[in-house]
Sequence to fold (1002 residues):
Amino acid sequence: MPRSNPEASDRSKTETDFGTDFLQLDVSLAPLGGLAGWLTEQLRAAIADGRLPMGSRVPPGRVLADELRVSRGVVTEAYQRLIEDGQLAGRGRAGTFVVAAPISPGISGQASERKVPRTDFAAAPGHDVFDALRASPARIDLTPGVPDLAAFPRSAWLRAERRVLDALDPAAFGYGDPRGAPPFRRAVADWLARNRGIRVEAEDVVIVTGVAQALDLVSRVLLDDGIEEIAVEDPGSLGVRQHLASRRLRTPPIPVDQAGLRVDALRESGASVVALTPAHQFPTGVVLDGRRRRELVKWAQDEGGLILEDDYDAEHRYDRPPVPAVHALLPERVFYTGSVSKTLAPALRVGWLIAPPSHREAVVIAKRYADLGNAVLPQLVLTELMECGELERHLRMLRRRHRRRRDAMIEAIRTQLPQARIHGAAAGLHLTITFDAGFRDTDLAAAALEHGVKTQPLSWHHQLSSEPGLVLGYAASPPADTARGIALLRKALRQVLPGQL
Amino acid sequence: MPRSNPEASDRSKTETDFGTDFLQLDVSLAPLGGLAGWLTEQLRAAIADGRLPMGSRVPPGRVLADELRVSRGVVTEAYQRLIEDGQLAGRGRAGTFVVAAPISPGISGQASERKVPRTDFAAAPGHDVFDALRASPARIDLTPGVPDLAAFPRSAWLRAERRVLDALDPAAFGYGDPRGAPPFRRAVADWLARNRGIRVEAEDVVIVTGVAQALDLVSRVLLDDGIEEIAVEDPGSLGVRQHLASRRLRTPPIPVDQAGLRVDALRESGASVVALTPAHQFPTGVVLDGRRRRELVKWAQDEGGLILEDDYDAEHRYDRPPVPAVHALLPERVFYTGSVSKTLAPALRVGWLIAPPSHREAVVIAKRYADLGNAVLPQLVLTELMECGELERHLRMLRRRHRRRRDAMIEAIRTQLPQARIHGAAAGLHLTITFDAGFRDTDLAAAALEHGVKTQPLSWHHQLSSEPGLVLGYAASPPADTARGIALLRKALRQVLPGQL
Fold:
């Protein structure tokens, strides 16, 4: 809703972070004598439908009172009620902020205001399946894929950014090298050497906006080579499969067993490219073992095959030694990709891609035409965090915390869902549970969502048939939430399997 | 060059922003008695080849002296020489920083260390033409396309980022809406309403990483529609043409005259999509006039045509009223795109794309599979800067400064290059000069580069034949540099056209 006040930008800053036109409050609609209650509901609706988004500052009480022509006490009262409800929080002189959306979707009036995607577990997963699940209201989010986001090192980030801005040459604000900022490419090469046993030069690293973009760039250069299919693990990431399919690449499924990808099946498939997650298979958590690694290398050598190694959460391990990257064995046949999404935050949209020499130039061209290169400031901030050891400190802290959260989830599952088998808990940010009983795991996920718990059904990540299961992230939730979530899963399972519990 | 010290991350931060292994200094190679001179040259080479990148902090003198086992005075002396040369600068307690690379490429030893692209004006422009020109050494950069980068509001940016980080909900660090952060989409909608007369809802805005990505996304959805060509202006941006061609789209050229794109020629071409820069045509600076606008709208209505409006520097105008966006006339047939590259900095990689309703969903899907959405923090920082009026203040300041710089360039051209005709100086960040004489403007640009001045030959931006010319950016250079650059251009012209001056 564009604001119409052309002077807005000339008013002094402390007063006008917000106009209030966007709230579209019409005080003539308020019931007589119920102004504060009316205003509370209006603000709650504005929070629910995003006009007052999470993290935003609400207008100063004086400003809102003036614009509505109500007494300041009415506004104070409404804010106080929302603070008590946990939707607003005062932060002293900084103002009052939106800190949580209302839980009940009934209050929000969202549907009439804007199209919010809905999770329909009964349907085949569509393009917006992950957005829809993210947007679904639920008290407890056990979907996989993110680290503890509350641990993001805000102060260290800001300090590093200050150092970067203090020293930055103005020319660095211009168009840059599409491959990424040279200092960051060097820092990433160092990081991969220290943490993943990968020996590459800074020149070999292309900075991308994450594994999603890496998939897109690799797809593009392989399509130009005449490649029409990329074999994928089964089970394997639905998201990866969707990305490849969006490029019109076929994704023949290759079964995964306890030793990882079945290389014999890969060989039989006739595919010349395979995408896989060798360090911690998604979603099973299996490690590609030594024999399979040797088989995979031999396959690539025999067949001229290419390997797309998605090292998505290799930094997180608890009960086992580090697993080296396949790239270290066969750099001339491997596209290697990783990101800071699992060590810091997906919202940073920063990752890296190392292409085999045969495709290096094509990848740089693809990156150039995709977006001319990543934003510079975040790359330089990350350089600082990597070079001063801050990122490694953060990762050690996360590992300890995630391990406790994992233990809490395992304990809750053993207690509440004894019939579930647990897979892949030795590393990563999630685990998978499966059930012997025959039911549709999409029904279970749907029932769980009704109880206020978000999960992903295992079948989303399967092209071949499989036992029912769920993929459960533990890293982002405090242990108490996890325990509560698993207890609610028990109720959901009872609905899906009446008489079994 | 990966560092091998595994303890680097455990050393205390104040001491170890840098190890010095990466400098690979072997003091045994120094001539006897010439330690300081030797170290100066080694550091200069490290700056030139990027081991000590621009903006980086050099190791504290004490640390470097310890590691090299030389006296601290040797290091101090070497740093002092580089400070006097303008390559290092002390910043008090923050340390000593690299602020400029050595000018002479001979000193750097770059060629042996890494592949640096070279500008070959004699060849047809390749994929890396702009990267190569950017990397070419030259004292004065008169290439078009960037605002005054020294004016980037570093303090305001950092303050806004602090406010954002103080208030941010942890969930915002996760995966977000691929269309962009809701508050920023609203801020962009407001910005476009205030500054460009465009009335859209926040829901209509997709945040992208710049006009380059917008071109890529639009290309993708149009290719899916079976579109095989997008007509472009002639002259028109080489970069845009390269982006479209990288998607295998043909780019039939449509002539531009003093009233803008020749819509009659567009109609004759049979193309169903046209990309153009109506507010300030690149590179001629012509405005699409009222009659042509009406013709263009009629063309789109008659033919079901689609318009890709690149509003790349519409915010910069000096001697004329604002020109409304074509989007405002025909929102149902226009893809509208713009960015902060010309108002703040290209290095931010933030822009927006508004698709017509017919292609809105397809654009969102394309953005999702391209990169899952822009990084969140910069979007929220920009929201703050837009909503508190900071960006508009910055733009007013830039306009005044750019106007003075433009006037300085015009003055210098009139004095030094009286035979040049000046075009398109009423707005934007660049102007174009043309010559009646017959010569190859690529020869002129090459001669200018030899004299230390970077420019773009006009013929790069032509598919059809044209008079020779240069495209000259004035916004990024102080008037004294511009004057010196134009004086050097006079020398270059004399080489290309002996006897004419």
Remarks:
- Chain A touches chain B through 108 residues (CB under 8 Å).
- The longest helix of chain A spans residues 390-416.
